[in-house]
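Record passed on underneath.
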Amino acid sequence: MNVRIIAGIYGGRKIDAPDNTRTHPMGERIRNALFNSLGTSVEGAAVLDAFAGTGAIGLEAISRGAAHCTFVERDKIAQKVLAKNVALLGAETQCKIVRTSINTWVDQNDDASYDIIFADPPYHDLQLSTVSKLFGLLKPNGLMVLSHTGRGEGPNLLNGIVVVDNRSYGSAYLTFFRREA
């Protein structure tokens, strides 16, 4: 299965995605809408792609001008595909791949900080307590985008974190959170 980078320096290039149900790369239509809504805020940003899977979201951010992206992925098959995709695009200097669970990584890197965090956990296991921990990694005015099914609860908000947008794309939802300055 192939996924296309939509715009930017890698626009039109294809990256791999495993042919299994363990990863669900964000659809092109949703990714395009997401990045159109982010606009120029991606340029020069420090990005975290939590639950990275194929890396499609973080690589789209790099393609559109993000300074750096940290990808965190625990699935060994997805890790191999992600490393292949980063190499395929020649983006190794702007990308760091962390091979562990996002929960373990956050606990060990609670001093890290990002302008933009993309959280696209498995729809069958949203790991909301882990997603809530990600808020602590946002810089002032930083933005986190959570991809989810729209059913059930959302993550617990920390003080200073506000929901700034909610968008629906069929059965997929994007919720935008901002850390107030």
About this structure: The chain has one domain: 2-179. The mean pLDDT is 91. The CA atoms of residues 42 and 66 lie 5 Å apart. Residues 2-179 form a domain with the Rossmann fold fold (CATH 3.40.50.150).
